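Researcher: Quick test of sequence recovery. Tokens follow.
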């Protein structure tokens, strides 16, 4: 006898639950621990400065972060990466937004908690496990039979489309969109937000804000200890 489909709550992680980017924190710690060379910072330091001075975009900064990560992850031992990732997770696990933290707590007993992220799986998975997520999709960097990263990502093209990943999870985990909730903060989250019954644009980028406003989705902004519904 088949069980009834489970309601689903799908969340982006970086900037939605975690108050930064797990990939940025992992990259910085890789450099601090000597897993990546200090010269890796040269790839993104200019875009980082421009963003801090509000003369550049966060998107340009994160593109350079990804470039630096891609360039230096090849040849790194998985065990070394997991050790650093665990340090990052333990240090940052409570650095979360109040609104989404409370929403996760509220939905935990009634919904299947699903995370979809473009950060590396080996940092996203332990972070999400700590918060009670039942399934995590993130960029899975390939490891060879000797335990070293190859520099490639499994199913990269598919993983870049969060809507397709969400559909895969619905089918695989026997989920229903009835009563579903979705929370995201950027344009990459639009494809899964369009699918759920209750889409929430949280601290949205300008691109997501325009789509959310046009579609009359909930728009929530958390600033310091105050939450605004726009």
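Model:
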């Amino acid at each position: 006898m088949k069980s009834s489909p489970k309601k689903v709550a799908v969340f982006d992680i970086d900037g939605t639950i975690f108050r930064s980017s797990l990939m940025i924190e992992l990259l910085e710690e890789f450099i601090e621990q000597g897993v990546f060379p200090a010269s890796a910072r040269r790839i993104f330091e200019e875009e980082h400065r421009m963003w801090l001075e509000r003369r550049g975009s966060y998107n340009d900064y994160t593109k350079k972060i990804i470039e630096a990560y891609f360039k230096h992850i090849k040849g790194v031992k998985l065990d070394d990466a997991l050790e650093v990732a665990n340090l990052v997770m333990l240090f940052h696990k409570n650095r979360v937004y109040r609104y989404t933290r409370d929403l996760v707590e509220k939905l935990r007993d009634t919904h299947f908690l699903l995370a979809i992220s473009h950060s590396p799986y080996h940092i996203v998975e332990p972070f999400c496990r700590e918060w009670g997520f039942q399934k995590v999709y993130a960029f899975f960097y390939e490891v060879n039979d000797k335990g070293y990263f190859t520099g490639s990502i499994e199913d990269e093209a598919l993983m870049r489309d969060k809507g397709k990943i969400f559909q895969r999870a619905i089918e695989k985990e026997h989920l229903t969109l009835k009563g579903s909730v979705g929370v995201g903060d950027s344009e990459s989250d639009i494809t899964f937000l369009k699918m759920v019954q209750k889409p929430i644009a949280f601290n949205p980028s300008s691109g997501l804000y325009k789509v959310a406003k046009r579609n009359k989705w909930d728009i929530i902004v958390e600033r310091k200890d105050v939450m605004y519904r726009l």
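The beta strands are 6-11, 112-120, 135-139, 141-143, 149-153, 175-184, 198-202, 218-223, 226-229.
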